[in-house]
Amino acid sequence: MQQMGRLRDAVALWRGLESRCRDLVELTALAVEEDDFSLQEQLEADAAALGRELAREEMRLTLSGPYDERPAIVTIHSGAGGTDSQDWAQMLLRMYAGWAEVGRRPVEVMDLSYGDEAGLRSGTLEVGGSHAFGYLSAEQGVHRLVRLSPYDPNRLRHTSFANVEILPTVESEADIAVRPEDVKMDTFRSSGPGGQNVQKVASAVRLTHLPTGIVVSCQTERSQHQNREYAMRILRARLLKQQNDQRAEELARLRGERANPEWGHQIRSYVLHPYKLVKDHRTNLQSPDPDGVLEGAIDPFIEAYLMHKLGNGD
Question: Within this chain, do residues 129 and 264 fall inside the same structural domain, yes or no?
C-alpha cells in the first residue's frame, strides 16, 4: 500500500507539471499573438518557478536505488575530542532536523545519549518524506568542524569530528526477519539533563542481536515499550545494511574489485575560524555561509554529490 501510494503521488505530480507547462505555453502564445506584453513579467516568473521544480524532480529521478524512496534513520556519533566533539554531534543533529523542517518532512527523535558536560555522544533521528534516504545518503561519512572552542578557557582553536550514519527504514518483515529468541533485551536508567524519569525508572532499553553482536539502545522516551519499538526499528535497519554490505563485498570479490569503505572518509569540513567556509571534499563545492548550512541549508551539497555520483556512474 505504501508503494502504491508513492506511485500514485508520482503520477499526480508529473501530470500536474505537464498541465502547468501546457497552460504556460498556451498563455504565452496568446500574449504573443495579441502583442500583449503586460503579462511578460508574470510569465517569466512562472516559467522560472516551473523550471526549478522540473530540475528538482529531474534530480529525484536519479534516486533509483531499492531503498531511496524510504524514510531515513540518521545517527550521529561524536568522535575523539571530548566535549567539543559531543557538542559538534548535537550541532549536526540540529542541522538535519533543520533540513527536514525546511522541506516540511516529518522528524522523530529516536534516541539521544548525552555527553557528560554538553552535547551528545550519539543521537538518532528518523526523517520521513519523499526519497528521504536517497537524499540523506549523500551525508554519510565523517564531518569535521574547526572553531574556537567554547569549552576551552584559553579560547584556542579546536578540530572536532563526528560520524554520520544513514540507514533506510525497514518497511516489512520481507526485508529482514528477526527472530525473538535472537534478541536479548536489557533495561537501564535513562541519563541526560532534566526530566522526572531520568535516573529513576529503568525505561531505557538495550537490544543485542546475538547472531551478529549488533547492539542498539534507546532511552529518549519515558515508556520502555516505546524505547523498545524504536530500538527494534534501528536494529532492523542495521541488519539490513549489514546484509547489503555483505552482498556488495561478495560481488566486489567476484569482480576482483577492491571494496571502498566510504563511511570512514572525511566528506566535509565546516570552518568557523579563522575564516568562514564549508567545503565538501568529494565535489569541491564550497559555501561562505556555515551558519546557514548549520541551520539546514544543505540541499546544494546533497544535489552536487548526487550529480557527481551520477556522472561517475556509481
Answer: yes
Residue 199 Ramachandran class (φ > 0 left, ψ -120 to 50 alpha, else beta): left
Pick the closest to residue 305 from 52, 51, 63, 49 (CA basis): 63
Q: Are residues 168 and 301 in the same domain?
A: yes
| Burial class of residue 136 (count of CB atoms within 10 Å of its CB; 0-12, 13-18, 19+) | buried
| CATH code of residue 81 | 3.30.70.1660
Q: Are residues 45 and 134 in the same domain?
A: no
Distance CA 198, CA 193 (A): 8
Q: Which three cell numbers stand for residue 281?
A: 571534499
In this structure, the number of other CB atoms found within 10 A of the CB of residue 201 comes to: 14
Give tens-digit pLDDT for 243-263. Answer: 888 888 877 776 665 444 344
In a domain, 135, yes or no: yes
When pLDDT is cut at 50, 70 and 90, the band that residue 10 belongs to is confident
Q: What is the CATH number of the domain that holds 223?
A: 3.30.160.20
Smallest Cα–Cα separation from 85: which of 164, 145, 166, 157?
Answer: 145
What percent of the chain clears pLDDT 70, i.e. is strictly above it? 89
Give the residue ranges of DSSP H helices in the chain: 2-33, 40-61, 83-102, 132-136, 224-255, 290-294, 299-311
Q: Which three cell numbers stand for residue 123?
A: 543521537
Query: Is the domain of 145 the same as that of 223?
Result: no
Contact assessment for residue 146 and residue 157, using Cβ atoms and an 8 Å cutoff: yes
pLDDT of amino acid 142? 94
Q: Per residue in 53-103, pLDDT tens?
A: 887 777 777 787 888 989 999 999 998 778 999 999 999 999 999 999 999
How far is Cα 136 from Cα 305, in angstroms, rounded to an integer?
11
